[in-house]
Design brief:
The protein has 354 residues and is α/β, with parallel strands linked by helices. It folds into 2 domains: 26-210, Alanine racemase (TIM Barrel), CATH 3.20.20; 235-350, Lyase, Ornithine Decarboxylase, Chain A, domain 1. The protein is built from 11 helices and 18 strands. The chain has helices at 11-24, 35-39, 43-50, 62-70, 86-94, 104-112, 139-148, 170-183, 195-200, 332-337, 343-350, and strands spanning 6-9, 29-33, 56-59, 77-79, 98-101, 119-126, 134-135, 152-158, 190-193, 208-209, 235-247, 252-253, 259-260, 265-270, 287-290, 293-296, 306-309, 322-326. The strands form 3 sheets. The protein has an 8-stranded parallel beta barrel with strand order 2-3-4-5-6-8-9-10, surrounded by 5 helices. Strands 1, 11, 14, 15, 16, 17 and 18 form a 7-stranded antiparallel β-sheet that branches. The chain has a two-stranded antiparallel ribbon with strand order 12-13. The two termini are 16 Å apart.
C-alpha cells in the first residue's frame, strides 16, 4: 500500500548549493559526501547529478561504493571508513576506490598486498576527534611507509573536526594547529573542512573540502538557518490532511493526552508519523506548514498520523489539503530543534527508503 507521506528532491537546489560551496571554498577541490543514502536524499540520484560537477564523491563503506560503481558512477570515490579486511582491500583495487587508512594494520595489509594495480590512499590523522585516525606523532612514519609502497599511487592526508558546528569551541583551533603541524613541510594534498568548517573556519580549507549537510541545503549551526548562507533545501517532506476534528475547550488530543485545547479548536489529522521517519519526539508547537501558513503541532506524534491546530488559518483547512513538514517553506533545522535532535537524523530517517 502506498503511504501518503512523500519526499520531493530538488536537483536544481542541489546545484545551487554546490555553487555556494564553491564560493566559500576558494579554489579547493570538492568531495561531495553521499554516505548514508546521501543523507536520505537517495544516493544514486544525488551521485548521478553530482559526478560530473565535483572532483570526488565520499561514502562511508565499500558496499556503498560498490553500489555506485554497479550503477555506472565512474568518478573518484573516497571510502571514509577504508577497508575492513583483505577482501575489501581487493574490492577497493578492483573498483578503483580511494580508501582512507586510519589504523596501523591497514597500512600493514597494504604492505602485504601483491598487485600490479596501484591505488590512491588517504591517511587520516586524529587531531582530537578521538574516533578514527593515526596519532599525530605517528603520522610521519606512516606517511613514509605508505609512500614507499609500490601499490600506493598517490597519498593524501585528512582529518576531521569534532566541534566545527560550535564556533566558540577552543578545540577547533587546537585541531587546526595540530593538522598544520602535520602538513608543515609536506607536499601532500590534504582535506580538513566539513560543511561547518567551510562556512566558519577559512583557515581549515586545504586542497580538498568535504561538504555534506550544506550540499543538501541545511545549516550545520543551530543558531543560523540555511537561508542565512544562501542555501536551498533539496528535500521537501509532504503529506496531506485526512480528517478535520472540532474539539471543545479542555479536550485533549492523542496518546498520553499531552496537549489540551484552551478553546474550541479545529484539529487537522495529517497522514505522517514516526513510521514515515517524522520525529516521534517533536514537541507541541513544532511548526507544520498548511496552505502556506505555519500551524503548531498539537499532541504526540503517532506511528502514521500527527495532529495540527489549524484554528487560526484564515482560509479553513480541509481534507486533502497539502501539508509540508519541512523543505522550501520550512527549515528542517527548526523541526529538529523542536524534536531535541539534529537535522542529519531527520533527513536520514525520513529518506531511508529513497
Amino acid at each position: 500500500m502506498k503511504r501518503s507521506a512523500r519526499i520531493e528532491i530538488n536537483l536544481e537546489a542541489l546545484s545551487h548549493n554546490l555553487s555556494v560551496v564553491r564560493s566559500f571554498s576558494q579554489s579547493a577541490k570538492i568531495i561531495a559526501v553521499v554516505k548514508a543514502n546521501a543523507y536520505g536524499h537517495g544516493m544514486l540520484t544525488i551521485a548521478r547529478h553530482l559526478q560530473d560537477k565535483v572532483d570526488a564523491l565520499a561514502v562511508a563503506c565499500v558496499d556503498e561504493a560498490k553500489m555506485l560503481r554497479e550503477s555506472n558512477i565512474d568518478c573518484c570515490i573516497v571510502v571514509l571508513q577504508g577497508f575492513h579486511d583483505q577482501q575489501q582491500l581487493e574490492q577497493c583495487l578492483a573498483l578503483n576506490l580511494e580508501p582512507v587508512c586510519h589504523q596501523h594494520w591497514q597500512v600493514d595489509l597494504l604492505a602485504q598486498q601483491s598487485s600490479d594495480t596501484q591505488i590512491n590512499v588517504w591517511l587520516k590523522i586524529d587531531t582530537g576527534m578521538n574516533r578514527l585516525g593515526i596519532a599525530v606523532e605517528d603520522s610521519a612514519e606512516l606517511q613514509q611507509r605508505l609512500q614507499a609502497l609500490s601499490i600506493v599511487n598517490e597519498l593524501k592526508l585528512m582529518t576531521h573536526f569534532a566541534n566545527a558546528d560550535d564556533k566558540t569551541a577552543n578545540s577547533n583551533q587546537r585541531q587546526l594547529d595540530a593538522f598544520n603541524s602535520v602538513l608543515e613541510g609536506s607536499a601532500l594534498e590534504a582535506s580538513m573542512s566539513n560543511s561547518a568548517a567551510i562556512l566558519s573556519i577559512p583557515g581549515s580549507i586545504k586542497d580538498w573540502v568535504r561538504p555534506g549537510l550544506m550540499l543538501y541545503g541545511v545549516s550545520p549551526f543551530p543558531a543560523q538557518s540555511a537561508a542565512d548562507f544562501g542555501l536551498r533545501p533539496v528535500m521537501t517532506l509532504k503529506s496531506h490532511i485526512i480528517a478535520i476534528k472540532t474539539v471543545a475547550a479542555g479536550d485533549s488530543i492523542g496518546y498520553g493526552s499531552c496537549w489540551s485545547s484552551q478553546r474550541e479548536s479545529q484539529i487537522a489529522v495529517v497522514a505522517i508519523g514516526y513510521g514515515d521517519g517524522y520525529p516521534r519526539h517533536a514537541s507541541n508547537d513544532t511548526p507544520v506548514k498548511i496552505n502556506g501558513h505555519i500551524c503548531p503541532l498539537a499532541g504526540r506524534v503517532s506511528m502514521d498520523m500527527i495532529t495540527v491546530d489549524v484554528t487560526d488559518l484564515a482560509n479553513p483547512a480541509d481534507v486533502g489539503d497539502e501539508v509540508e513538514l519541512w523543505g522550501e517553506g520550512l527549515d528542517v533545522g527548526e523541526v529538529a530543534c523542536n524534536s531535541s535532535t539534529i537535522a542529519y537524523e531527520l533527513l536520514c530517517n525520513t529518506g531511508k527508503d529513497q
